[in-house]
Amino acid sequence: MRNSFSLVTVLLCVLFFVTSCSKKDDVNLQTIDFELLAVPSAGYWNGSDATGSFTSSDMKFYNQYNAAWSSWSGFSYSQKNDITSAGFENEFSVVDLANLKNKFALFYPSFDGDVFAQFANNQDYTIRSIDLCNSTYAALSMKNGNAFSKKFGGTTGTDPDWFKVTITGYDHNNKLIGSKEVYLADFRFADSSNDFILNKWTTVDLTSLGKVNKITFTFASSDTGAYGINTPTYVCMDNIRYIMDNVNL
Q: What is the set of domains in the chain, with CATH numbers?
């Protein structure tokens, strides 16, 4: 009886500890949803005001804007969801029809160096998850092809094409902590009915990154040429959920 009682006691203690940690995580869980950002009349912000960044909740998102070319890189934000208009002119739309007027951020890589999102207080936090989706520009390019990039799957639909983004996390000392690959399109399946181009918000688990202070995004694609990736290198993001590990309750 004494041994059975001891085992039950240990199990109860473990259960209490796990439950307590889970409740603490839930209390400390924060979400960056971009809903408090002011959206210009065009339906998007691309850094043309030369501020160089925007902040949502505890995270700062950096942007580079070239006034001479009216071009941007890094992060922007939008609430557009035109899912039918193909081409660069529709670069600020998410391809998820259900998005409606929900606000979200976009990333487009810079050719002048890394652009990242960073917790504004220089703390390291555990990012639990992020919602990702393709931009309409990228999705329709992969679906139909255009003058610069191929139709995924090719004319037969069997070409093993793919497009992915890698999310990499660094701590406040700029040390690489971890990374996560996410396929935004994948046509490598033996059964082509499983091929996909991500066209709805999808939650991605990022706990494998560990505690990080900043995150960066890089792209890779099966469709490349002499000048690099032909696929439009955009990704839309929303609902960055993170645990404020440093908060004591």
A: 30-243 (2.60.120.1350)
